[in-house]
Design brief:
By secondary structure, this protein is an alpha+beta fold. The protein has one domain: tt1808, chain A (Alpha-Beta Complex). Helix content is 21%, strand content 31%. It is built from five helices and 13 strands. Strand 10 and strand 11 form a beta hairpin. The protein is globular, with a radius of gyration of 17 Å.
């Protein structure tokens, strides 16, 4: 018995399908990968981050997008949907549809059991190839824990962690601060 080879999609075919789809999918190396729904905690964390960033960015040349802004990691070809994206200066998009950002400054991913390994591993590797990316933030949803990676002048990444609700993380590339108590507002741990 022979197996039928899986048809590979071009990025253009993926975008044509994705733009009409009811559910989001990531794309890499000719394949589409359906994204699962997010938990209550995951959604709260994303909206809380956006809510805390908005007043800090509103009068500046930066924009924040929550959940639905597709990002293309041009050096590797990954198309993905970070939980929160910040861009400063003129946003650059892949095409006239203005729905695929090319130059994110800060990316946030809220970790879930099903995506934690990917977000820390392969996805992080992809993200770090973006010349525009200055910071990458991983947020646990089951306990107060944030891992904050900042690109250094030698292109190395410096990790800092925050684990207490009274902690604050500084985002130097966008001159913003996030208090963990605000990020985790209404999130119930251990439920």
């Amino acid at each position: 018995m022979s197996s039928v080879p899986k048809q590979r999609l071009t990025p253009q075919e993926y975008l044509a399908i994705e733009r009409k789809a009811e559910f989001k999918s990531e794309y890499f190396d000719g394949e589409m990968f359906a994204m699962s729904g997010a938990s209550r905690e995951h959604n709260l964390v994303g909206w809380n981050i956006g809510s805390v960033l908005w007043p800090q960015l509103r009068d500046r040349d930066c924009e924040a997008y929550i959940g639905d802004m597709r990002v293309k990691v041009s050096p590797t070809g990954l198309y993905t949907y970070p939980d929160v994206v910040v861009v400063c200066g003129e946003p650059r998009f892949e095409d006239a549809e203005v729905d695929t950002l090319l130059n994110p400054k800060v990316l946030f991913e809220t970790l879930s059991k099903s995506t934690e390994g990917y977000d820390r591993g392969k996805k992080s590797e992809h993200y770090r190839t973006l010349a525009s990316l200055a910071e990458y933030v991983l947020i646990a949803q089951d306990k107060p824990h944030i891992e904050h990676y900042v690109r250094q002048p030698d292109n190395q990444w410096l990790l800092s962690e925050a684990k207490r609700l009274e902690d604050t993380i500084a985002l130097p590339s966008i001159q913003c601060n996030l208090r963990l108590a605000e990020i985790y507002l209404k999130v119930k741990f251990g439920v």
